Amino acid sequence: MEEEIKKLITAYYPIENIDNIKVFNGRVIVTFVNVSENPQSTKELQEKIEAMDGVKKATLIYTANKAFSGLKQADDMWHIRGVKKIIAVASGKGGVGKSTTAVNLALALSNLGLKTAIFDADIYGPSIPTMLGYEGTPPTTMDGKTFEPFVNLGLESMSVGTLIDKSQPLIWRGAKACGALQQLLCDTNWGDIDVMVLDMPPGTGDIQISLSQKVQMDGAVIVSTPQDIALIDAVKGINMFKKVNVPILGLVENMSYYICEHCGHRADIFGHEGAKKTAEKMGETFLGEIPLHYSIRENADNGTPIVFAAPDSEYTKAYEAIAQKIKFKLGL
Q: pTM of the prediction?
């Protein structure tokens, strides 16, 4: 029933303005966010919802001034020195290859002539030090106040993973975690950077929202597999960024398909064109497909991501094609 109600609503309001739909005991409560009430639309929607089988009463609630409005206050923003453009690489859930995609896209952007940095904002599961080959190396400081970025494989980077033992869980609440991210982001001497890639934590929790509100992001790239359960969460990620006024650069379908090395047969292990169809449905850009292959995983684990290790491979070309679209969208 919720999907049918959502279809009715989208004839009147954009999907990103739907905050919640509750259905119980014949009653429907729809909550809108960041939109003003239109009496005529409200009346028509109520009548149409109440005309549905099993619905006795429909209530529409408008929260135009809700605190989670996405508006950014200039004096409250984190200032990241020397960085021209910032993009988030995000996913609605873990396990879809977000960090592998982030580091390879950063390398691909570097290959396109952009001075590129990557920041590991995945505070509870940092993996950039491993992927760039400096795991276990602490950050350095020249003045005791600021950090020097790591420079590996042509990328500047920083990660909370360099401050903690990787075998120990990071038991920090949201405020402390955000404070650590702010310090690492703002107190690192980045120099002159064309584009910074933020490897975001998976999901749509407190840290993701805080980063989206505090950092002036120029766009977000959403990573998903073709699997339905991953796409459901990817849609949530898209809607979160829209609510905080971060432009969606597009969707990347990771682990899109597998080509057998022996017979050449293509297997759509996790589904077929799920991210592409989702992008079309939501009016967003589909940036491209990345196949499933052990060499992508193996090179990331070894600290030499595929774009660096195999610059002429079809996998690198796939990442570079996506990076080219991102570069164009950023006007670089």
A: 0.76
Structure tokens at 279: 């992008």
The 10 Å Cβ neighbour count of residue 72 is: 16
Distance CA 179, CA 150 (A): 20
Place of tokens 């080959």: 133
What pLDDT band is residue 141 in, cutting at 50, 70 and 90? confident
Domains of the chain: 2-63 (3.30.300.130), 74-330 (3.40.50.300)
In this predicted structure, what is the pLDDT of residue 229?
77
Helices 206-214 and 228-243 cross at an angle (nearest 10°) of 40
The percent of residues in the chain predicted with pLDDT above 70, rounded, is 92
Judge contact between 238 and 285, C-beta under 8 A: no
Buried b (16+ CB within 10 A) or exposed e, 224-256: bbbbeebbebbbebbbbbbbbebebbbbbbbbb
Please report where in the chains the tokens 């405020």 appear, as a residue: 175
Q: What is the mean pLDDT of the chain?
A: 86
- Residue type for 257, please? Y
Choose the weakest-confidence range: 82-86, 94-98, 327-331: 94-98
Interacting residues of 77 by C-beta distance below 8 A, sequence separation 6+: 214, 215, 216
